[in-house]
Records
---
Amino acid sequence: MRNKIPVFISAFVGIFMILKYFSTYPAIKRVADELEQWGVITLSFSIVLGVLNLIKINLKAVVERKKDWGYKLLLLVSMFTMMIAGGVKWYLEEVRGRQVNQGLPLAVHDSLFDFMFDHVYFPLSATIFALLAFYVASAAFRAFRAKNLHATLLLIAAVIVMIGRVPVGGAIWKGFPWLQEWIMTWPNTAGQRAIQIGAAIGMIATGLRVILGIEKPYLKG
Amino acid sequence: MTGTYDPFVETLGVWLVCFFTLAVFSFLYRDNPIYKAVEHIYVGVAAGYYFYQAFRGTIYPNFVLHVMRGTRAIVQGQAEGWTVHDGWLAQWRWGAAVLGILLLSRLVPRLSWLSRWPMALVVGAFAGLNLTGFAKANFIDQIAGTMLPLAAGGSAQALPFWPGATAAAPSIFNHFVLVVGVVTVLTYFFFSTPRTGMLGKMGTVGIWFVMMTFGATYGSIVLARISLLIGRATTLLDANLPKYGYPAYWCALLVLLAIVVWRLKFCKDEQQP
């Protein structure tokens, strides 16, 4: 039962998803839509699972005063603050909002949740990604060496794209913006398209293997 | 920013933005307590944000509101366009919640095998959806998009260099580049037979295209990251106004002092990296 039922569920749901695409029969579409919603809702619970796991691991470290427990306490405090702020926003918009707005949700833009999103989550997220600029530049310094024809092609394409997209490129030579657009539109599209076709073939094969029960990733762990 | 706040809250927000931005940049010196603290705050806030999004964006509308509407239809005989029959059909959605709760059994090792059922549902659903979705968008549509005219005729231009031509304008030469690129790159990734003779030559041309693609992608990524970096610098400059009390200067000083104190007091015996 532990192994057979999951294989049956996976095959049943997968077949309905394929039938939904090809069939015009309303009952099949309705069942497939419902199963798709089940999948979306179940997937959302995986975030709940992740959050519970985060609480379990970090709370244990804080209670047992393990190494760096102070940082883990900060993590828990910020997480609970954001969750409570989210709960308050939901209440203001959905519960109280519907009472005062003829049954429709009300948009609130100055809640603690919005404040934390604007002034904590967004700047931290953007700066962490911006930090990668230094590492990408350092990696480029090591990777862009014209050792052979292949590395030279990589270097030339990257340099033209980088120079052609900034105003100074056009100031150096008017052809740079045109050339970078040409590389992005034609040779780059050709490579990306072939990679996409290859990935799609892999995806179709993996999907079929999962639906037919040959591949069973959900039985692991 | 999405919110509009009163002046005090706005000033507090600007100070927070400056502090968090500079605290993250302190990592460029080396891993330090200020960076570690804001890194943990980021993980916590992100977890809280995604938890809210999961509830508000999916569980609440697709389960709670759906079932409540169905229940109202059953109790009142008809509600918001739904009949009693629709109301009973909506109650099937409880199955999704039960499977969602079964997913949480992973936290209890003795019962963790129960989480295979919801996992199987998710994997099966997305395998089926992706199978048809990828087959259409990434396979058939891409092949169809590569079926381009390769001979001059009508108004088609042979070369892409006529006066006023944009780089993206279709021409026989550009079509030729695209078709040859797709076919040769696919040949390069075809591992079922040894790449000798004609196949080998096509594969060689294919790898030239792959290298140009990777170079162009890498160049775009470098520019995107630098653009983000400029964005953060602009944010600091825009926030560093007298009406806010020059928060960028003060926060920079605070971060610097914290690093100096930490370096002198707690890392005396450590060697420089």
---
Amino acid sequence: MELVCPAGTPAALRSAVAAGAHTVYCGYADDTNARNFPGLNFSREEMEQAIAHAHAQGAKVLVAINTFPRAGDAAPWHAAIAHAAAAGADAVILADTGLLAHVAEHHPGLRRHLSVQAAAANPDAINFYAEAFGVKRVVLPRVLSVQEITAINREIDVETEVFVFGGLCVMAEGRCSLSSYATGLSPNMNGVCSPASHVSYDEEGGELAARLGGFTIHRSGRDEPAPYPTLCKGCFTSRERTGYVFEDPSSLDASQLIPQLSKAGVSALKIEGRQRSRAYVSQVVRAFRAATDALEAGRPIPPGTLSALTEGQSATTGAYAKTWR
Amino acid sequence: MQLTVGPTQFFWRGEAWRDFYARLADEAPVDRVVLGELVCSKRLPFYQTEIPQAVERLQAAGKQVVLTSLALITLKRERKLMADLADMGLEVEINDLTALAYLPKGTAFSVGPLINTYNEGTAAWMHKRGAARICLPPELPLASVRAITAASLAPVEVWGWGRLPLAISGRCYHARLHDRTKDNCQFICDADPDGREVETLDGQDFLAVNGVQTLSAACANAAYQVPALRDAGVSSLRLSPQSEGFAELCGDFRALLDGRITAGELSQRALPHAPGGTYCDGFLTGDTGAAWSQAGRESA
């Protein structure tokens, strides 16, 4: 089972490779990728060095160019793809239909993975992307159960990659404009969700109000932890109900499901978190590499050691176990 | 400029559904009506038998009728529905690329607002595949609308009215608000014919839930943007159904496009029935999607 690990910086990439990542994914420092955060991502030169370093260590590099090109201004996206191809990237991760068509036509030798941002959630959609654009691997949306993943793999010929750890999108990825409704910036167009530039914390009457674009997303008492105001994980009121309307603050940990995912025909396990520190990446990659090694050796998956790293200190197996829905 | 009525995003059972489309056929001066289930396949059996009659009545009234695909297709049953849709003999509007897999190459179709057509490259690919019309995602700013429309060989449509579809999920928020699972939802979303409002902890209107869909609380209203959209070459406006006053709203938009009333008059007349009771048009021109270009002005 291939372990696909995040790298927001060249240092994180080296840490991930040292910790046992089979594959690392990363992006350029601009709005061509869906983790376009300040201080993150790779310059052209850093990308070349990172790919050379990973290859020398026997690891692969996937380059995420998974936002939707700005209308009338596709040049930065086309340039990113040309550079990834020239630098020897093992694949590019794409979401936009026009961009997939561009790569299939102009860089036919460059391996194409379908980003989770394309939200291909059934065999028909996956087979469509495979036939139309020669996609070789699909990152599955986090809305599917293990059973559904098993059924999908029976009907497709391409590889599947699934998220096993980290942040958990509640909505179908790539099909959400909640963030731009509140802030003007979105994952699809700008590569950011609930951006820090639009967050404010205000102390009010002994409470801390966390706001995004002026909308109050959370209030916490003096001694409570104040979560980051990610829109879909906020606390809202709907008539008589006040609470987490969309999702309780938790993050994904499907480590115990690895054997089932393997049986379901999944080729690769993906760890979310290009915005995370080197230390975090090292720790998570090491734990998951131990898990995939255990799987290969037919040993049980080591019990979870990562609970302290999950958001809000609670973890969920997400949609993989169907009760979540 | 033409007017297209989008599929209702909400769950209206048989009679309400039938009456809505009957009035639309008889009274609404629109060119095209897209109908069918967009949001949740579990709703379809409650009005499915009404569809053929509605199609007939709308066509008899001179309107082009188009059938929508679902917005998120995961179940086998839903895939089968898409296959059936392709065999109905009407134009299909795709709102999940899955539907495309069932349309034979060369079949004309239209592209709905829930397909990610963010640029001219995607628009060109869609046109080559048979797209006869493309409704752009509501999130796009005017500059993008202009760039895509200038390059697109297929006519371009823009979201003109109605609560904005902001997100779709595998989970049902209506069921969650009633402590039910999605599989045992008991069709509770029918209690809110225009969606169920979600406020911030400060009591500010923000979002609305509609089963597995999340909408804006404010009603998008592109009336003030019509001159700019016309100038950009946009060929039609999409009006998204609401439970009250919709045929009148269609008439008001027709009057606006014909120059018989102003954007201010339309906005004033339509406000009492606008879901949420507030407007936004910020995706087109503002800093945020929730922004309203007329905020603080008298005519708003």
